[in-house]
Write a structure and sequence with these properties.
single chain; Nucleotidyltransferase, domain 5; five-stranded mixed beta sheet; two-stranded antiparallel ribbon; 27% helix
Length: 300
Amino acid sequence: MTTVAGLDGCRGGWCAVELDVQDDSVTATGPVIRTFSDVVASQAEIICVDIPIGLLDGPGRRYCDTAARKLLGRPRASSVFPSPCRSVLSMDLSSEQYPVVSIENKRRSDRKLTKQTYNIAPKIRDIDLWMTPELQRRVREVHPEVCFWALNNGQPMEHNKKRFMGRMERWALLRRHIRGLPLIPSIPREMKPLCAIDDYIDALAAAWTAVCITRGARAIPETPAYDDHDLRMEMWFPEPVDGSTARRNRRTPVQLSRPRLPASSFPSLQPVVTAESLSAPRSGPSSVVASAKPATPGEE
């Protein structure tokens, strides 16, 4: 049996889900995993994780972050947090040190750290200490909202993931692909109370993307930039198994019936990038290859 794994950070450590590549079913969830080293020790062939891999240590922004925000549009673009400078990860990351670390990040990169980025900084450090170019062939960066965008025929999610309708629309997409999921979103008992339901849903999206990588998936940007540790800065997301692009994928986007809620005001977004072969020659930062029409502002 070939398994893959999806990871999302949670208050107890890492919410991890394993899927069987042969029958697209959940094979294991288990208790919350405390450290990334425990994940690396697993038998998963591909591991997709919702955390930045490959970091800058000076002015500028990771192009994959910028491209992901363009694909998602408002309000989902705000879910893609700016990545920190690698050097500040060696500082004291306790909660009271946030102002100090944020100022140091601004000194090195001309931008302060957002509170959201600071909250996941220990997990970014955990993975960065382990990551090597060789390990990156197995461990890939994803962003759940980009994964759901791809699964929804190139359209971002309408509702905030922490609300009931947001959980339902994401769960409906996952049930199209992952066998055995119940009708209503629910978290395995062994993960409670250290993992929230939205963390579990994001981990499932990451795990399904790992399945897609074994069959053919895509990444942004088309030609990734490399950081000082020779790590690719890219985000992976699913594509149809037959290899057609989301532009040609005419499946109807997920719709949830609730008359008193307005219909989605998001325009159709179309991907214009393809997955970069791991054997392709290394190159520097690429030009913009992903675009989206601006969306009407909505719920953050």
